[in-house]
Design a protein that fits this description.
The chain has a domain at 2-51. The protein has helices at residues 2-26, 31-51. It is an all-alpha fold and 72 residues long.
């Protein structure tokens, strides 16, 4: 779980760097890169509760969608 999160985070950071260049050159964001980065943040939220002993529910190895924002 921690190894998966670390590898996923490194790839997400590379995607953020690429996204920065895409925004700089094209003036808009790439939806695919944004979705990948959002997926990392969702997985991070999914795992962090267990890592900091806020829940006893052990997260799975593979990420599953969670909400990280309020719905209107």
């Amino acid at each position: 779980m921690g190894i998966v999160l670390a590898v996923y985070g490194i790839i997400a950071e590379i995607c953020m760097l690429i996204q920065w260049f895409v925004i700089l050159i094209l003036g808009r964001r790439s939806e695919g890169l944004s979705n990948f980065i959002k997926g990392y943040l969702e997985y991070f939220v999914h795992v962090i509760g267990y890592v900091y002993w806020m829940t006893d529910d052990r997260p799975g190895i593979l990420p599953k969608p969670v909400e990280i924002h309020e719905k209107e």
